Amino acid sequence: MLYPIKLSILSSKILLLSIFLGLIVTAGCGFQPLYLHGGANKSDIVYKLAHIIINPIENRTGQILRNYLQDKLTPAGIPDSPTYKLDVSLKETRSDMVILRDSTSTFAKIKINAKYRLFHIETKQILNHGTAVATTVFNIVESEYANLNAQRDARRRAVDNISHTIKERLALFFLQKRQ
Fold this sequence. Notes:
Layout: H1 2-28, H2 44-50, E1 52-54, H3 59-73, E2 84-96, E3 107-120, E4 126-139, H4 144-178
Parallel strand pairs: 1-2
Antiparallel strand pairs: 2-3, 3-4
Helix pairs in contact: 2-4, 3-4
């Protein structure tokens, strides 16, 4: 009985030591938060993100993506004097995955590709561009209403994921440009 107790005490000491060493290494590596707020170190990344105007994106999925991007990039509202313009185009595909013997499907996958370009408004120069991809799945059941809701929710989840990806990439772009 003494052996398991000594082992658990030893393992807890090793765990505490590894956490302590991890904190020391992280502090020494130059880590800094991406979205630093307040004080003398107020981040210009948040300021630059807030000065992006987002062009309208076609179809309903594009409208939802634009709303998510506006909430994430410009939470205080549309900028009065934007410096940057974001242009996004979407391509959506749906694939039925599990095909039964009677040629019906019980599982579907939605894949959305979003190509984005960040322009400087004055120079009309493309500053950053890329593609964000998100894939979600949903079950297909007997009820058509449930299927429409499941597909709409899958689309919403994919677009939310894309908006996070675009925001992170733009923030990293501004961070790298600053350094």
